[in-house]
Hints:
The protein is an alpha/beta fold. The chain is built from 13 helices and 17 strands. The protein has a domain at 57-237 and 314-440 and 458-490: Alkaline Phosphatase, subunit A (3-Layer(aba) Sandwich), CATH 3.40.720. The chain has helices spanning 17-36, 39-44, 84-88, 96-99, 138-142, 160-169, 179-187, 247-268, 271-294, 301-307, 317-329, 348-372, 458-468; strands at residues 64-70, 123-126, 131-134, 147-154, 197-201, 227-229, 334-339, 379-384, 388-389, 406-407, 411-416, 424-426, 428-429, 436-437, 456-457, 477-480, 483-486.
Amino acid sequence: xxxxxxxxxxxxxxxxxxxxxxxxxxxxxxxxxxxxxxxxxxxxxxxxxxxxxxxxxxxxxxxxxxxxxxxxxxxxxxxxxxxxxxxxxxxxxxxxxxxxxxxxxxxxxxxxxxxxxxxxxxxxxxxxxxxxxxxxxxxxxxxxxxxxxxxxxxxxxxxxxxxxxxxxxxxxxxxxxxxxxxxxxxxxxxxxxxxxxxxxxxxxxxxxxxxxxxxxxxxxxxxxxxxxxxxxxxxxxxxxxxxxxxxxxxxxxxxxxxxxxxxxxxxxxxxxxxxxxxxxxxxxxxxxxxxxxxxxxxxxxxxxxxxxxxxxxxxxxxxxxxxxxxxxxxxxxxxxxxxxxxxxxxxxxxxxxxxxxxxxxxxxxxxxxxxxxxxxxxxxxxxxxxxxxxxxxxxxxxxxxxxxxxxxxxxxxxxxxxxxxxxxxxxxxxxxxxxxxxxxxxxxxxxxxxxxxxxxxxxxxxxxxxxxxxxxxxxxxxxxxxxxxxxxxxxxxxxxxxxx
Length: 500
């Protein structure tokens, strides 16, 4: 058991004399130790609250995370969870005993009928575990031996905004720190010239918005928030100097700002001033580092061929996957990709083809590329959305068309590298793809409060991610508004069955 981390009050003015001397003793020792370490090690052990934030709770399996978030809720029934019974019973009513008392969204709750909809796509088994993959995912199926497929994810959220917020921040209510911010806060950065947390978004996809609070730092220091890199010639707004000022003048201006901010900090003891100065300095260093990392022109032709034709188009999901590999090589701790457009309430067969075509090859290429470069073992890659889709059709069901509503009770994601089992399938769902079951097909009553073997709650996934990075999710806390907050709130268990 690890002793809980004790963090300081939210504002230095709240320090008592006892707090000051108690913390100073440890702080001076940590500062002395840091002074003896070389620069790369000091960067890895970026200072946190009481303990240096880079000191993990135990030996990590992963050094970094690449999260390929598929916003909108990909249909597990058309991608990763084969249910032939739905094709057999296509058009028949969803049995009431299967649905039970589950809440439906307003979009299908008033339907007179809930007709079962079999998938329009063929499935085949791949890899050592015989994982089922749809014909829509040929490239992903080809790397099945590297993947840990989780078919038993579940969540309480049934609508997009709370569901995405839940995955990204551990709460359905906006305002909490994001997953990447918690990781930056807990482990620090390993590259002083790039942000520890970078966000890449595929533009102009779908009608479900993404908000910057999804990668915000909430009540943590603002320096822990994600930094969005944009497509095109200017990946960060105002990164380049305006016409006129030279590099020397820019440096002199920052030195003056540092001195003025230092005087204000000494008067007001506001920690946000320190964050502001740190961000000024990071922006200055990024003027050199960001153009280098975002310039893909030096990548050989075979790399672009691996990621697919879209990889030459800035901002595409393929180009962002290639960018993620370049960021991982340079020590960026958490890389968040968002690909929108998976919200297929109607015209699913056509719409999901487009989504799969845009994401299948680059997702698989990222795994292959990381493995070829020796980075997969210590890079955790995650692919998945905020919930699954219903086994019944939303709206009219025809021979060639159907839609699917939101479904939180069970859905699929996959992970790779970073200490998870390779070539492994975890969890079971019933023949309708509607409820979780055990290996024998018996209903599984899962609860976020008690870990249920075979089921993986959102908080369980978050706890497992932190565990693979060497962090105990129960100890990574921050005091705010009278209590200690953590990413997993008061729930979450490490899904040990997923660990290699």
